[in-house]
Write a structure and sequence with these properties.
With 245 residues, the protein is mainly alpha-helical. It has one domain (14-244). It is built from eight helices and no strands. The radius of gyration is 18 Å and the shape is globular. It starts with 27 loop residues before the first helix and ends with a helix.
Length: 245
């Protein structure tokens, strides 16, 4: 059982946990509850940096603190999954600080873009959840391998673009509002959406296998990573579309 998120690899957690009662093991409902807690923490942190930005107290330092602090918390969670009941909420708060700042910047340039991006992100999530639960799209090994490969290719592309940026070399597909630029963003959003299927599949299978209770936080953290990625790509796509007008 694997997922495209690096954190979703059940081989790291050993055999099934045999418990006397359900309170000692991971459940789907428990995972959803933990995911909602993480999303609310991120929302309130984002609201803080959003308010700071529009009240004239915008601070790039706060945004960067959220970005790099969130990265550190994410790495800690990935390498120490049993820390997730503490590290996942810390990640959510720090990521919220970053998201609030970056969202405010986009909102300053493009009216209404943030609310559109949020709506589209959760709309895609519910559509993919419906497709998964209804069995319309089944997570097979072939599908899983394809999504993992596509996600890895995108990660390498972004890494290469960052390196090239240090030398003053731009990557047109990332920022162009032309046909190819918009198409590229749509492809990335599609891959991010299919990552949600793999996240749902991991949560269902991990719950069935009776993984430890802390895995609810861990799985919620993994799902949140995908949602953050999807949201940021939605912002990028909508910015490209609005700049075409």
């Amino acid at each position: 059982m694997r997922g495209s998120n690096p954190i979703f690899n059940s081989q790291k957690f050993g055999a099934r946990v045999h418990a006397v009662d359900e309170s000692a093991v991971m459940t789907i409902q428990g995972t959803m509850n933990k995911t909602m807690v993480l999303l609310f923490l991120a929302f309130f942190a984002a609201a803080f940096t959003w308010e700071q930005y529009f009240s004239g107290n915008e601070s790039p330092g706060l945004l960067m603190f959220g970005l790099f602090g969130g990265l550190i918390a994410a790495m800690a969670t990935i390498f120490k999954p049993n820390w997730s009941p503490i590290s996942a909420p810390i990640y959510a708060i720090l990521e919220g600080l970053f998201l609030g700042g970056i969202s405010a910047m986009y909102a300053h340039m493009y009216a209404g873009i943030v609310f559109q991006a949020v709506g589209l992100t959760f709309g895609v999530m519910f559509v993919m959840l419906f497709l998964y639960r209804s069995g319309t799209i089944k997570v097979t090994e072939k599908l899983r391998s394809g999504v993992i490969a596509a996600t890895g290719a995108i990660a390498l592309f972004y890494f290469a673009s960052i390196i090239l940026g240090f030398f003053g070399i731009g990557v047109p597909l990332l920022h162009s509002n032309g046909l190819f630029g918009v198409g590229f963003s749509l492809v990335i959003i599609g891959v991010a959406a299919f990552n949600l299927l793999l996240d749902f599949d991991f949560i269902e299978n991990a719950s069935r296998e009776g993984m430890p209770k802390f895995m609810e936080w861990y799985a919620g953290f993994g799902l949140m990573i995908t949602l953050v990625w999807l949201y940021l790509e939605m912002l990028r796509l909508l910015a490209k579309l609005q700049s075409r007008d």
